[in-house]
Write a structure and sequence with these properties.
Radius of gyration: 14 Å
Strand order of the largest sheet: 1-4-5-3-2
Number of strands: 5
Largest sheet: 5 strands, mixed
Number of domains: 1
Shape: globular
Number of helices: 3
Structural class: alpha/beta
Oligomer: single chain
CATH topology: Ribosomal Protein S5, domain 2
Length: 120
C-alpha cells in the first residue's frame, strides 16, 4: 500500500538537514522534523547497526513504515520527517509507534508550525 501525501527521502543532505532540526523522542524511536516548503511530506527511516543484523533492522523499518502509513492522514502537510529506530523498537508493535506519532509527534509538529506563524 502506497502512502498518500508522502515521498521517500533518499538524499543524504536532506537526512543531514533534518538531524539539525527539531525532534521528539521516546524509548524506541526519535522523529526529526522540519518544514520543507512544498505541498507534500517527505519521510525517511534510519535503522543503524546498533539495532542488530539486517533482519532486525528491516523489521524496525517495517514497524515504522506501517505506523506512519496508518497515521499519515493526521500529519500536517509540508514537512520532512526522519524516524530513527532504537533497539527497543524490536520489542514493540506498530500500535505502540502509532501512539507515539499521534500523541507526541503530531502535536509537536503542530506547535512548531504555530510558533513559526507567530514569529512572522
Amino acid at each position: 500500500m502506497r502512502m498518500l501525501f508522502t515521498d521517500v527521502i533518499k538524499e543524504s543532505k536532506v537526512f543531514s538537514s533534518c538531524y539539525k532540526a527539531k525532534y521528539v523522542s521516546c524509548s524506541f524511536a526519535v522523529c526529526y522534523f522540519k518544514r520543507n516548503k512544498t505541498a507534500i511530506n517527505r519521510f525517511g527511516i534510519t535503522a543503524g547497526k546498533k539495532i542488530g543484523g539486517a533482519v532486525q533492522r528491516n523489521r524496525a523499518k517495517r514497524i515504522i513504515r506501517a505506523a506512519y502509513r496508518n497515521c499519515e492522514k493526521y500529519v500536517p502537510i509540508g514537512y520532512d520527517m526522519v524516524f530513527v529506530a532504537r533497539k527497543e523498537i524490536l520489542e514493540k508493535k506498530t500500535s505502540d509507534l502509532e501512539w507515539f506519532i499521534m500523541k507526541r509527534v503530531i502535536p509537536s509538529v503542530n506547535s512548531a508550525a504555530a510558533n513559526a506563524e507567530k514569529q512572522k
